[in-house]
Specification:
alpha/beta, Chemotaxis Receptor Methyltransferase Cher, domain 1, Rossmann fold, seven-stranded mixed beta sheet, three-stranded antiparallel beta sheet, 10 helices, globular, binds S-adenosylmethionine, transferase, Bact_Chemotaxis_MeTrfase, CheR_MeTrfase
Length: 279
Amino acid sequence: MDGLIEISEKEFRTLADLIYRTVGIHLTDKKKMLVRGRLNKVIRRLGFSSFEEYFHALESDTSGRNISELIDRISTNHTYFFRENDHFDFFCETVVPWLNEIMAKKGNRDLRIWSAGCASGEEAYTLAMLLAETYGFDYFSAGAPILATDVSSTALNAALLGSYPFERLKDVPQLFLQKYFTKLGMDRYQVKDVLKKLILFKRFNFNNEHFPFRNAFHVIFCRNVMIYFDPPTKDRLIAKFQHFLEPDGFLFIGHSETLGRSHPSFRYIRPATYRKGAV
Ligand SMILES: C[S@@+](CC[C@H](N)C(=O)[O-])C[C@H]1O[C@@H](n2cnc3c(N)ncnc32)[C@H](O)[C@@H]1O
């Protein structure tokens, strides 16, 4: 006995189904204890004594607040600056020259970059620093900001706030730390407004039927998100990415992920890096 509210097999399945239908996150039976632990505090705070009562509240909640909190508790938002850094080296060495070619050909500065599943924003801020270093802040006054989306409102609020413990900034070069952050205390840094302005943070659920983008992207980062999805959900999302990428556009996924063989419309470039268009 650990004093936590019990979750029955049936209750766990009801919850897993609801989460799957809402955000596509696939919870296997192995996650039962994790889910029970993560939701106990929420259930108690709401004044319930069982998962069943909690479900009733979820069903009758028209504000969407409870379901939103549920998703926040279940999704894993772990991230940090310059995570899987070889992607960012490749971005500077190979993607940026390609972006330059496109801009030169089109005669505009319309670059479209999407950090899809951005969690608390570290990936998007990393890209913003690299783009600011490459193009300067001027570029952005003409070009589109980086789009960064997530389904978790809590994660997005943290992204908008832009205040991070040093632990998440360990891989940020010293020069960038000085240039783009204000030190708040021993262990905390604040992203400067000049950097914040380069990013548009929006709530967006990959499970939505409709993706509200007018134009396709040149680069999509969707890293460490699809690991939580089952194959049909993942395939549907990859098809959307394919649709919303420019020809030869880049798709970056997490290093522990793969597109598999069912997506011939992407060609493999290097680990966790693909381009739109068959070989
Ligand atoms: C582990 S974080 C990845 C953060 C960052 N991309 C990285 O690689 O460090 C996974 C994020 O995916 C988000 N996510 C999960 N399901 C989603 C969905 N259906 N729509 C949008 N975002 C989702 C979660 O909220 C979480 O913030």
